[in-house]
Amino acid sequence: MRLPSRVQRDRRLVDAALRRFLPRPGSVPVTVRRAMAYSLFPGGKRLRPILAIAACRALGGRVADVLPAGAAIEMIHTYSLIHDDLPALDNDDLRRGRATSHRVFGEAMAILAGDALLTHAFEIAASHPADERLAARKVLAIRLLARAAGVTGMIGGQVMDLEAEGRPYTYGTLLRIHRGKTGALISAAARIGGIMAGGRPADLRVLGAYGDHVGLAFQIIDDILDREGSTDRLGKTTGKDARARKATYPALLGVAESRRRASDAARLAERAIARLGRRGRPLAGLARFIVDRVS
């Protein structure tokens, strides 16, 4: 499904920011910089930073103020993909339509490239924008980003995901896994956009609720695409969830019921931001895009 034109423009902004914020050539060992850039470009949909940008705009903020945080979020997301693909975790050979990082650079360099992206992301988020008037907002954004990426969020979700493989699980278990593994960073992206816009606590709660529902919809559709999608279209290996006996929505609920729940989650996301009026329409469009996507 083609991205809306505004989203495509924002994607180009994110790509330009990522190029700008990568360590300068000559400032770090050349191999690790190559491995970092290899996994960042060409990138995926850039959904997380685009959510941050849309949320910032919805509260009247400036894109320039949120763009560094958006780039940091995408670096953290990319680090997680590099590490997910490693033989010790998902053992995958294909990501974004080409060989995974460890297949090109070796396991050791892939691990270090992921570590480099994670740590560099926090340097970017702390250093940019340089405007001292944004310091308090940056502190709040960094704290939220650390929680979403850490053991209370993405890492914790990954642990639960690994421990659930091949074991009986409930819908509640599935929700807990994916609130951390996938949903935490997506929800944080929306809230960080609001923080960098100077949003009030009530606005941030609205964006948090929106992000929670969008994160759920995204993961459900991701599970369905792993089962029904094609490797060529997705740019990654399909069918691996079933082979690894992972806890997924289609395996527990069936595809039809999973799609229904994804649609329900998108509607709840739209309802959550209804109070933002016209300013929230791009966020509503992103929620619908997530449910309708085929890659």
Describe the overall structure.
- It is a single chain.
- With 295 residues, this protein is mainly alpha-helical.
- The protein has one domain: Farnesyl Diphosphate Synthase, CATH 1.10.600.
- The chain has 15 helices and two strands.
- It has a two-stranded antiparallel ribbon with strand order 1-2.
- Helix 4 runs antiparallel to helix 9 and helix 9 (171-196) packs across helix 10 (201-228).
- The longest helix has 28 residues, at 201-228.
- The chain is globular and about 50 Å long.
- The termini are close together.
Sum this structure up briefly:
This protein has 295 residues and is mainly α.
Topology:
Layout: H1 5-21, H2 30-40, H3 47-58, H4 63-84, E1 94-95, E2 98-99, H5 101-105, H6 107-127, H7 135-149, H8 154-164, H9 171-196, H10 201-228, H11 231-234, H12 240-243, H13 249-253, H14 255-272, H15 281-292
Antiparallel strand pairs: 1-2
Helix pairs in contact: 1-3, 1-4, 2-6, 3-4, 3-9, 3-15, 4-6, 4-9, 7-9, 8-9, 9-10, 10-14, 14-15
The H/E string reads HHHHEEHHHHHHHHHHH
CATH architecture: Orthogonal Bundle
Name of the top-level CATH class:
Mainly Alpha
Main sheet properties: 2 strands, antiparallel
Q: Please estimate the helix content.
A: over 70%
Strand order of the largest sheet: 1-2
Shape: globular
- Provide the number of structural domains: 1
User: What is the mean predicted local confidence, pLDDT?
Assistant: 93
Could you give the count of β-strands? 2
Range of strand content: under 5%
Question: CATH H level: which superfamily?
Answer: Farnesyl Diphosphate Synthase
The structure class reads mainly alpha
N/C terminus separation? 8 Å
Residue windows where pLDDT falls under 50 for at least 5 positions = none
Compute the CA-based radius of gyration: 18 Å
Total helical elements? 15
CATH topology: Farnesyl Diphosphate Synthase
